[in-house]
Amino acid sequence: SPLAMCSELEEITLSDCPNLIDVSSLSSCTKLRSIQGHACTGLVNLAPFATLAHLQFVSFCGAKGVVDLSPLALCASLQHANLYKCVGVSDISAFASCTELRNVGLCGCDKIDDISPLASCTKLEMVELCGCHGVRDISPLASCPKLQTLYIGRCSGITDISPLRACMELRYPS
After folding, report:
1. 88 - beta bridge partners?
2. Residues 56 and 34: beta-carbon distance below 8 Å
């Protein structure tokens, strides 16, 4: 594939690519640090990202077909993950291995009900859970001492925010 020749590629943005399904050629772009995909509704398989050791930034807004995040568990350098309106995502356990994660955006991922994997992400500074109606327990975030910003709008299942007392740097709970 033509991308196989792009071994020096560090950033790629894929916008409004509803028919994009196969991103396997990205696995040969070993220097890739940032992948952004907006309105790539056909994207399903993130497996090619498992080989990207330098990947720091992933943003897939509206990738409705993405269900399995497990390939991201192998992205040890991942610092930012935005999965806005990836409505197929229900399991974020892959993030437990992403100990460098600083920002995670899960707004509109309404199938998510367990955020306990985020407890392993002790460098987290920002978490966006807006519209994650299934989330009831935010106590795992108490293990994130660097948490500064938390967005929990339209999270109708959350009834207790007292665990956030442990987040001494929290500035903007909403």
Report:
1. none
2. yes
Q: Please give the model's pTM, rounded to 2 decimal places.
A: 0.92
Indicate the DSSP class of residue 64: T
pLDDT digits (tens, 9 = 90+) for 4-33: 677 889 999 998 888 988 899 899 899 999
The reported pLDDT for the residue numbered 17 is 87
C-alpha–C-alpha distance, residues 105 and 92, integer Å: 11
C-alpha 18/C-alpha 110 separation (Å) is 21
| SS3 (DSSP) at 57 | strand
d(CA 50, CA 43): 15
Q: Predicted confidence band at 171 (pLDDT cuts at 50, 70, 90)?
A: confident
What strands, in cross-sheet order, belong to the sheet with 126-128? Answer: 11-15, 34-38, 57-61, 80-82, 103-105, 126-128, 149-151, 172-173
How far apart CA 89 and CA 63 sit, in angstroms, is: 10
33 contacts 13 by C-beta, under 8 angstroms: no
Please state, in angstroms and as integers, the Cα–Cα distance from residue 135 to each residue in 19, 53, 70, 145, 171, following that order. Answer: 31, 30, 20, 20, 21
Backbone angles phi, psi at 82, to 5 degrees: -120, 115
